[in-house]
């Protein structure tokens, strides 16, 4: 089965992801894991990568805004 996302689903996913990404950035910057800005940036990107992967896996399980498309 193929699915297509509605515009509403795409917008909602984008807004939720940006909120998660901002929270991730805030936590990394506030905790200032190291004194090296480059290492903090790398850590922020690594955690963002992992969180985004998990976010996509969870969002794929949600049927809201998915339309079944015939092949």
Briefly, what is this?
This protein is mainly alpha-helical and 71 residues long. The chain is built from 2 helices and 2 strands, in the order E-H-H-E.
Describe the structure.
The protein is mostly helical. The protein has one domain (about 1-70). About 70% of the residues lie in helices and about 10% in strands. It is built from two helices and two strands; from the N terminus they run βααβ. The chain has helices at about 5-30, 35-60; strands at about 1-5, 65-70. It has a two-stranded antiparallel sheet. Helix 1 runs antiparallel to helix 2 (about 35-60). The longest helix has 25 residues, at about 5-30. The termini are close together. The mean pLDDT is about 90.
- Number of H/I helices: 2
Q: What characterizes the major β-sheet?
A: 2 strands, antiparallel
Strand order of the largest sheet: 1-2
The helix/strand class is mainly alpha
Quantity of strands, as a count = 2
Number of domains: 1
Radius of gyration: 16 Å
Distance between the termini: 8 Å
Layout of strands and helices, then pairs:
Layout: E1 2-5, H1 7-31, H2 37-60, E2 66-69
Antiparallel strand pairs: 1-2
Highlighted features:
2 helices; two-stranded antiparallel ribbon; mainly alpha; 2 strands; 71 residues
